[in-house]
TrEMBL record:
Its main location: cytoplasm. It comes from Exophiala oligosperma. Gene3D superfamilies: Classic Zinc Finger (3.30.160.60). Residues 142-163 are annotated as: Disordered. This is CDAN1-interacting nuclease 1. GO terms for molecular function: zinc ion binding. It is found in: Cytoplasm; Nucleus. Residues 3-29, 30-60, 59-84 form the C2H2-type domain. It holds the Pfam family zf-met. Keywords: Cytoplasm, Metal-binding, Nucleus, Zinc, Zinc-finger.
Length: 283
């Protein structure tokens, strides 16, 4: 009994001969529709799709919206491009008037856009919003219980968003192949060894890494704009970073929205925006 190949209308003396034909004939090869290459099996095609740089997901440059075929290509673009000067913070002259306006309006029904208009700032809206949130941390003597409750609820929501942002940042590092322990893991490791719970940065690398040329044993992630007038936070941050340097060696603080130029200025502590870290971290 013959076996028939329907696509090419050929008959074969046995089923085994038909299978051999399907394996060997390019007429039945699996086609990559992107680069038009043929593969002898679906497995080979899938392997090609997984490994070929031609099919890698594009990596975008956040500053100029160009896309690149790999992380290495993006980093080369950032090194070579004259349109992306290194980020080294925002001038205090740009930060102070915005924060001053936020303090004046913090107990009104003003919006972030009101602060932008009133201060005339050119800062990104996300930075203005962070300065506005910082101003809200300060109490007012005539604050009603209802106002205090609303302020506390907004702070709770911001804390939830901050945790989500930190988790996403750590996941991005993990996808790049870096091995580290987060706060809970650091506590568990100490308890299992019968040791006192150590200082726990958000990320503690198992081996030193280099970020934008700075050696790092640890990272602390902050989901806001870093500046020295931030109520209740700035001085606590500095004490925190100094303890990490004393315990683990050099590291860095990562401000999701950037930071004021010259802050926090602590020996052994680098300071970066999140996107620079994810573009320039290496073993």
């Amino acid at each position: 009994m013959t076996s028939h190949c329907v696509p090419c209308d050929r008959s074969f003396a046995s089923h085994a001969a038909l299978l051999q034909h399907r394996r060997d004939s390019t007429a039945h090869a699996f086609d990559c529709g992107i680069c038009r290459r043929l593969f002898p099996s679906e497995r080979a095609l899938n392997q090609h799709l997984a490994n070929s740089p031609a099919h890698a997901a594009p990596v975008d440059c956040a500053d100029c919206s160009r896309s690149f075929s790999s992380q290495n290509a993006l980093q080369q673009h950032l090194r070579d491009s004259q349109t992306h000067p290194p980020y080294d913070g925002i001038s205090p002259e740009l930060v102070k008037p915005v924060y001053k306006t936020a303090l004046l309006l913090r107990r009104t029904q003003a919006s972030v856009q009101d602060i932008v208009r009133r201060s005339g700032t050119t800062l990104e809206v996300s930075v203005v919003s962070s300065l506005w949130n910082a101003a809200e941390r300060l109490n007012s003597l005539n604050e009603s219980p209802a106002d205090a409750q609303r302020r506390a609820e907004r702070q709770r929501q911001r804390s939830e968003l901050a945790q989500q942002a930190e988790d996403a940042f750590a996941e991005s590092l993990s996808r790049q192949g870096f091995v580290f322990a987060r706060e809970q893991e650091q506590r568990q490791q100490a308890q299992q060894m019968g040791l006192p719970v150590p200082q726990t940065p958000d990320v503690r690398f198992s081996a030193r890494v280099t970020i934008c040329g700075h050696p790092c044993h640890w990272l602390e992630f902050k989901n806001y704009f870093g500046f020295p007038q931030n109520p209740f936070l700035a001085q606590n941050e500095k004490r925190q970073y100094k303890k990490y340097v004393s315990s683990f060696g050099p590291g860095a603080v990562v401000y999701a929205l950037g930071y004021q130029k010259g802050y926090p200025s602590i020996e052994g502590v680098g300071v970066f925006r999140a996107k620079e870290v994810l573009q320039n971290v290496s073993n």
